[in-house]
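Sequence in, structure out.
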Amino acid sequence: MQQLGIPCYYCTGTSGEDHAWNIVKLDQTYYNVDVTWDDTDPGTYDYFNKSDYEFADTHVRNSLSVYLPACGTSVAENTGEASSGIRELINENPQQPLGWISRGKPNFSEADAAAEALKEENLRKAGITEEQVIDSLEEYYKDCVEQMKTVGTGEQQFSNVVPESFWPSIENVYSSNAYWKGYVETALKELDADSFAIQLQAQRLGGGYYRLYHTIYTE
């Protein structure tokens, strides 16, 4: 979309579990587009160019995505006074992204409860606890440093658990060598070592999680 000159955002949130979709601007209106849920055989368009109102029962934005434009309204409405039905879907307090609907409208409590139940079931299938899951690069780098300090130099192995949706971020830091500054330099300094080699393997767990095995050598 961006190569075609069409503004396109990467929107993160939940849809039964951690999920992401796109927001695109067509003419003067923003729309939600979820190519994952429309990736069927034959293809469907059930989640193609939809408003926030149409997504409200199945998709909830979180993190910085609550700042992205409201969908189903024109640019003028996004910057001015949107219609009452859409305005109630715009988060006026981004620090609490789950409290979007007000003025007597139903809130997301039922959807939240269902999402939480599904999350607990997925964790149970994976045989892990929520505390074991790492879902940010900052947390991943910190955990790698701490585990490398614990196992010491020589040929060692450690592991951690990440959501399946976070795996592309992990792949990217290794393909771009960003992991070196992310945690390796710090760990080598802590270990008083100057060489490092790694083999990374990912094991798919149940419930949408990966266990990452790091076989490393430092000296």
